[in-house]
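User: Run a structure prediction on this.
Assistant: Running it now.
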Amino acid sequence: MKLVYWTVFPNTHQRALIDALRAAGHDVEVCYFGHYDAYRARLGWVEPAALPPQERRVRTLRAARRAIPDYDARTVLVGGYSHPVFWANALRCALRRRPWALIAEKSQGRARSWPLRRLFGALVNRSALAAFGLGPEAVDDLARGWGVRRSKLAELAYATPGAEAPAAPRPHAGFRFVFAGALTHRKATDVLARAWAGYAPAHPEATLRIVGDGPLAACLEGLPRVERWGVCPPERIAEALADCDCGILPSRFDGWGMALAEYARAGLTLIATQTCGAAEPLIRPGRNGFIVPPGDVKALTQAMADAPALRPDPAPLAATAPARLAAALVRRLEGFGEVWTPPRHLLHVVAGCWADGGGVSESVAQTVLAQARQGLRVTLAFLGGQAEHPIVRACRRAGATVWVFPRSRPHALYFSWPLLKTLPRLVRRASAVRIYSCWTFPVWWAAALARFHGVPYALAPHGCLDPVRRAYGRLRKGLAWALFDRHVLRNAAWLHATAETEAKWLRAALGRRCPPIRVIPNGVDGALLDSVPEVPREKTFLYLGRLHPLKGLDLLTEAWAQSGLAREGWRLVVAGPADGAEAPRGPGVETPGPLLGADKARALKAAACLVLPTRSENFGIVVAEALWCHTPVICTQGAPWQELGEFWVAVSAEAIADALRRFATMDEAGREARFAPLFEDARRRFAWTALARALAEG
């Protein structure tokens, strides 16, 4: 095949692809129309004194046609839309019906350039053989930002010399991070400096090597154990990376991010932001690196802390081997390529995923964690302002990307300006969106964006449509229902109910326009619960949950006093964060505060019985956790646990007191016989392995 490739200036990665095309027997002419800018000069790039044969510097299409006699017989490859020479080639090929194709990085998406991108995309749809995006982010940008039809799209990458056999780092003491690039705002040198300032004091064995220079070099002054290599030309990059362990690219934007491929070729683990084009092709989150939100100092610091547990993986880098990319490029130009399909990417949006957020927070975090552990691409977005749920850190370690947005006024609606600006890009990149709860701005905005971009979304109300709960704040919720939530629910692809009772609430609220409902219970983190050793059972009734008026703690207080079990040596332990209701007080009552993680598992395994006196509960995850731990349960009919039989009691103090007394009089064998089938059923129904897949479908 005869090709002519238009690009700005020579670089190592383009050179590798061009050489691979020529090695495969293709005739390639290359036209450069620009020179290295100040940014490349800061990286140590030096203009080549002479160009190889069939490569030249030309400013115009006319000059190129004079220099290349058979120009019109070649397939033209243009590397963007921002220069007049790209337009001249595309228009000439379209008018003369000559073959051409586009190769583009992800654009920054500036509003002022949007009309030009759409016009160029229309030109691609009309006459181009293909539009190659350099990475999945770039392909998605071509589809959604440029308007290129899916039939024209194909994924490519910058070729990495030596990708077939990455180097192994030399052994050394300690753990060394490295950043290679210009020290600029776009490369987020300031974010890296703040993350290192938080990380370094707790890890005295670690060092940070800085390869490059720039206007933000002062951000790194005074930080401990920072090695400054200064400007390093491309041919010495391998030397600078040879004794490093983990490469960091914290850019606010990078169309590709060549440094990431250099890190991978040197055999390093990788940390990059979601806005780097090379991040998704080269990083397997939780295995050979982490993908973090841009500008998130906390997420970057945590990724650095977790990086030593990872190992380099050469498999993703092999996809950027020059020979493989050259073959894929030619095959697509010859019309044999497959239609591009976007990668599966799940986005979860919730107002908060906090330590004291109750069952909703835990359910969301567990869903994300389970899906990330199964290898799915998962992103979680929620608002900060409170301590995040402990499972969120496990989500990051498993490879999920977690965005935490600061709250803005009005706080009552959980509004956030950063979420308003960033969520559109996250929704565009998603193949499906899951939204949790109701009555909040993140729910409304995520649903509106999903409809606008044609991305299907599922909504899990998590009990918000329970008539009892809707009675609290009736005026505010009624207004939100009329203006937003009813339309959000009715336009969902499907609704997630955790029990048949919640499905009935949904049908009653939405009527004939109710979308399909799938009843899928919440899951249990069985690995965590099983990791805590068994302990002797005590004469203890345990309540676990928020101290909220809906939880029926006033009923439990009265029932405990009526039961008289304190005089028989029984205790009532009420554990949970304060949320508008007072903890019970009286003889035999203990209030240890919130219990999370292993502490919660130990409390469940030590208790004789769990008590849930709730007035309203769409599921009651703590019941499933108790049954998983072989702990009997007493629950009111405010939660959908009919299988508890005679221990599923009316929502009243008298009924709860009677159940407490009946349970206390049973011997150990009787309790085991009564609840053993429920214990076995819990292990089957609430394991996250199957539930995570079910929630990812549709």
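The chain has 27 helices and 26 strands.
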